[in-house]
Specification:
The chain has about 150 residues and is mainly alpha-helical. It has two domains: about 60 residues, no CATH class; about 45 residues, no CATH class. Helix content is about 70%, strand content about 5%. The chain has a two-stranded antiparallel sheet with strand order 1-2. The N and C termini lie far apart (about 115 Å). It holds the Pfam family CAAD.
Length: about 150
């Protein structure tokens, strides 16, 4: 009662064009794969193009930097200033979260401002001294007077 079915055996053969074909089938309608040699040549060509691009990348980046040097430096300064402000605000927020530390810093600041007022701003002679110190400091920083 058992029916035995035989599976058709297929043997891989290489046709005259170098493409795989199956025996016992109509190979005219089947898609054919290119030979492995052509695929290797294509991968070598793609690899060569990638290698050429990577070899020219430092020169391209260098010319791009030289062309837009001022704009890139300005952008870097702006970004670093923003990051610095964010970090300082985060540190100050963390310090303000510690009990008694914030009021202590406020008292120190008030005391320092009071000292500066009494030391430099009450008398005309000390105001001139402060103006000279600030002018000297500005000259050191900027490099010119004015």
């Amino acid at each position: 009662m058992e029916t035995q079915q035989q599976q058709p055996e297929s043997v891989n053969t290489i046709s005259s064009q170098g493409l795989l074909a199956l025996d016992g089938t109509n190979s005219a309608n089947l898609p054919k794969l290119p030979p492995a040699r052509e695929s290797e040549a294509q991968w070598q060509q793609i690899g060569r193009q990638v290698s050429d691009f990577l070899a020219q990348l430092p020169e391209y980046i260098g010319s791009l930097f030289n062309k837009y040097k001022q704009a890139l430096l300005s952008l870097a300064v702006i970004l670093s200033a923003l990051i610095t402000v964010k970090v300082v605000l985060a540190v100050l927020d963390a310090i303000n979260g510690i009990p008694l530390l914030s009021p202590t810093f406020e008292l120190i600041g008030i005391g320092y401002v009071t000292w500066i007022i009494f030391r430099y701003l009450i008398k005309a002679e000390t105001r001139r001294e402060l103006a000279e110190k600030l002018g000297f400091f500005k000259k050191e920083i900027v490099g010119r007077e004015g």
